[in-house]
Design goal:
- The protein is of the alpha/beta class.
- The longest helix is centred in the C-terminal third of the chain and has 32 residues.
- The radius of gyration is 19 Å and the shape is globular.
- The chain starts with 25 loop residues before the first strand and ends with a helix.
């Protein structure tokens, strides 16, 4: 457990207001940690905290170690899983979760071998926890279809509050990459496009990259209702500036000069698909359909970039569905490009 300095709160977007005591910064050691030290009752709105200013001198992050941090934010404390750079370097790779992001762990940490892939590399893996159906965006309001109490402000967290916190441990604000899959694929591209001073590389795996396609908004609506009963209209009104700001086809010109790795399979079952029973068959069929949608939109996005004269590395595996083991494979393909962009 290690404590640092925190700035005074700047605002409260939760159900109650509390001032974080000076000196609040919590780190939970991975080995032997049995529970979070900041308990939040089930269903209760988290208390809001302001992002801390980085302390000086910087705290030393253990080279190659794994920790779980509780990071203050306007949404309340956010858990972040971290695997520190093997040799203490300042580069970081943000790994964003999917539509059904859980509140206890980022799926990259247990559905894939992501940590093993980068275990010997000089880059810190940053895996934020939570954000189900958020698209990692700053929402207009809290969702009114599921009783959400705190408005999602994920872009602010990922580009302001979290980098400021990590800077206190020697992680650069400017030498980062971001990678997302499915829901977080377009989010990763958006964060990099609109925060070029922070990110040097972006990757999208099986992401829906053409939000203007016929029926896409309603498809997103159905997906969000299914994953937590979230209301897409609370995220952004139809065709509003906030909505268009999240459409990769719209912000594509802002990606010029940014190294990118973008992939999608075609939805045909491959080596990782071994459905068992009716449930397995249903899940595989669903994964086939979603990946096919991602494939079509990724092809459209490839053409959009080509029209703009913007280069990116595209990978289209011969087979594959919308599932984690295929994203694990694509992460391995993206890895050398990420490390090269970060000088790690």
């Amino acid at each position: 457990m290690r404590f640092g300095k925190a700035a005074a709160p700047k605002g409260d977007l939760g159900a109650s207001r509390a001032v974080a005591p000076r000196g609040w910064r919590h780190r939970i050691l991975a080995v032997g940690a049995a529970a979070l030290v900041l308990p939040i009752a089930a269903g209760a709105a988290p208390t809001a905290f302001a992002a801390p200013a980085p302390s000086a001198p910087a705290l030393r992050a253990p080279a190659g170690g794994y920790e779980e941090l509780m990071v203050p934010s306007k949404m309340g404390p956010v858990k972040v899983q971290v695997q520190w750079a093997r040799n203490g370097g300042n580069a970081a790779l943000y790994l964003l979760d999917g539509l059904r992001a859980r509140d206890d762990k980022n799926a990259w940490s247990f559905e894939t071998n992501a940590m093993q892939q980068f275990a010997n590399d000089n880059v810190t893996l940053v895996m934020p926890v939570g954000g189900q159906s958020s698209w990692y965006a700053d929402w207009t309001s809290a969702s009114n279809t599921n009783g959400q109490k705190t408005t999602y402000k994920w872009e602010t967290f990922l580009t302001e509050e979290l980098p400021a916190f990590l800077e206190g441990y020697g992680v650069s604000r400017t030498n980062n990459a971001v990678l997302g899959l499915s829901m977080s694929g377009p989010a990763a591209l958006r964060l990099a496009a609109l925060h070029r001073d922070q990110f040097k590389h972006a990757s999208s795996l099986s992401g829906p990259l053409n939000w203007g396609a016929p029926g896409m908004r309603e498809a997103i609506r159905v997906m969000m209702l299914d994953a937590g009963r979230f209301n897409v209209d609370s995220m952004a009104a139809p065709w509003s500036p906030a909505w268009l700001r999240m459409d990769p086809m719209v912000f594509a010109p802002e990606l010029r000069g940014l190294p990118m790795f973008i992939s999608s399979a075609n939805g045909l079952p491959g080596q990782h698909d071994r459905p068992a029973g009716l449930g397995g068959v249903y899940n595989t069929a669903n994964a086939m359909g979603i990946e096919a949608i991602s494939f079509v939109s990724t092809l459209a996005f490839q053409q959009r970039l080509k029209t703009l004269g913007i280069s990116a590395i595209f990978d289209f595996p011969a087979n594959g569905t919308h599932s984690w083991k295929y994203w694990e494979d694509e992460l391995w393909k993206a890895r050398p490009h990420i490390l090269g962009a970060l000088g790690a």
